[in-house]
Write a structure and sequence with these properties.
CATH superfamily of the largest domain: 5'-nuclease
Helix content: 55-70%
Number of strands: 5
Strand content: 5-15%
CATH class of the largest domain: Alpha Beta
Number of helices: 10
Number of domains: 2
Shape: globular
């Protein structure tokens, strides 16, 4: 089974558009570090992601795992927020197949560490490819209206093209 680690942002954005279940359908099992739990559930009380993440952990398809010493030994992680840094450290330790994170700086660091990373849009593209959502354009509109994810027109065109939809 593939090891997939998630940062907070994809969890929050997918929850905001009522598409959190796509994570379970696509990846089956997710790992998150404690900082992501704190950010989404404790600090994010009453906001998108809180209830969905709690339910995922209670159901057992999302597990919380602390990164070990590598977290403190990688200077590349110093400039990231704690959730991103813990997620990337955990990905290195578990030899994760994929890391879910949206922030460009975090994804750039992931690449330098040899990790494969996709964000919320990558999850939605994969959902479209697997036939889990019928129309990516509608999901992008939903993101624009109900989440804090910034979508430029150019990025939207690229995403739709990758999913086989024309704008």
């Amino acid at each position: 089974m593939a090891v997939v680690i998630s940062d907070a942002s994809p969890l929050v954005h997918l929850s905001a558009i009522a598409r959190f279940e796509l994570l379970k359908q696509i990846y089956i099992q997710l790992l998150i570090p404690p900082a992501v739990w704190r950010e989404v559930v404790l600090e994010g009380k009453g906001r998108a992601g809180e209830v969905d993440l709690k339910r995922g952990v209670e159901a057992g398809w999302i597990s919380i795992q602390s990164p070990g010493q590598i977290y403190h030994q990688r200077p590349e992680l110093n400039d990231l927020d704690v959730g991103e840094a813990e997620a990337l450290a955990l990905a290195l330790e578990t030899k994760a197949d994929l890391v879910l994170l949206d922030e460009l700086r975090g994804r750039a660091v992931a690449r330098t560490l040899g990790l494969r990373a996709v964000g919320t849009l990558g999850v939605l593209i994969e959902a479209k490819r697997q036939g889990l959502i019928p129309n990516l354009a509608a999901e992008l509109e939903n993101l624009r209206k109900n989440s804090q994810l910034h979508l430029s027109t150019e990025l939207e065109q690229i995403v739709l093209s990758l999913a086989g939809e024309t704008a």
